[in-house]
Automatic annotation (TrEMBL):
Higher taxonomy: Bacteria, Bacillati, Actinomycetota, Actinomycetes, Propionibacteriales
GO biological process: one example: cardiolipin biosynthetic process
TM spans (from-to): 12-31
Entry keywords, A to Z: Membrane, Transmembrane, Transmembrane helix
Protein name: Phosphatidylserine/phosphatidylglycerophosphate/ cardiolipin synthase family protein
Pfam families linked: PLDc_2 (PF13091)
Any GO molecular function: phosphatidyltransferase activity
Every PLD phosphodiesterase domain range: 154-181, 322-349
Domain of life (superkingdom): Bacteria
Amino acid sequence: MLIGGVRTAVRWGVAGLATAQAGVIATLMIADRRRRRSRQHVAFPTMPPQTMPADETEVTVYTKGRDLYDDMIAAIDAAEHTVLLETYIWKADRTGQRFKRAVTAAAERGVAVYLVYDWFANLVVPQQFFNFDPRLNVLRHRPWTGLRRFPVRAPGLNHRKVLVVDGAIGFLGGYNIGSEYATRWRDTHMRLVGPAVADLENVFVDYWNQTRSKNHTTLAQPDQRQWDSPITLARNVPSLGVYPIRYMYLEAIDRARERIWLTHAYLIPDDDLVFALVEAVERGVDVRIIVPAESNHVVADWLSRVSYHALLSRGVRLFLYQNAMVHAKTATIDGVWSTIGTANIDRLSLVGNYEVNAEVLNADIAAMMEGIFTMDLGNCRELTLEEWEQRPLAAKVSEGIIAPLRPLL
Ligand SMILES: O=P(O)(O)OC[C@H](O)CO
């Protein structure tokens, strides 16, 4: 009798919470849609692409989509042997069409072109856009790919954004392909020219060979990989059960002695990451995080805010990027270590998706990344603990209601 009563109460409790969560989410989305209609596009600071050597590899960092896309297209147009292009989102707009024309032209002149795009992320894109010339080798990543194998592997979206041309030039970072990203989003991407490109090529080749269907050809492994590079690539590969990027962050944060400067589009850190950041503050590290004041995903923003109290009350400084979406997934620590990649600090990226981040151990590149962080800070407003504590009660209650959803993202 008592057990039956408890069961009924739990059932009603769960149903009530789910209903309240659905209500909060619907309200947020309606309010966000209204806000978006009146939102004006405002310019934000960017820098021209900056190039710096890291040992024998030349690293260029981009803060503006238009510059990046021009250089990616130029690389594809100059391709002589291979184009390996992997993107999470591929919009069918002018920019998407531009990339499609470039890879098609490359295939027409005899270049071997291999394309990967994510099925889920592009469901909203007209599917006829993905009818490619048959000379192109195309792999549409389906999240359940790993489930078809035995023993069953973890599912996951392919969230990577990678381009490798002729094994000689590689691109990696936060930019998907789309016109909005070219001018309206502040994101960070890198270009590699030199020995480290072999590792990026290997990232693509391994994925292709592990995931391809019987109709796809196998790709040859690059044979020029180095042991002692200042640039290493951390890959999350659900089908292999490996998620090193989360550990990469935990380890780098743990080593920090002076400063940890993070820029993240969707910051939904788990308790271990919050603990690591707070512990860094406690040993005197200057911990700053730039996040969008309002991202393109209102629910992600609200789930992100669930951790603000834990961060602000323990000395982590939060900076809200104004009037534009900051989509970068970067960090720079102690003027020594930096990362640029595709992984957000959320559960989907850190223990869910296929991702790749470059870790760069080089003081010049770190100085460059600090310069970019400082530039972005100029377009931010600091959120203080006092201000955060004074938000309306309705907001606090809403956060409490949706907080249990945090592990889903
Ligand atoms: O998943 P990301 O980080 O590439 O961001 C993509 C945008 O959220 C698309 O809506």
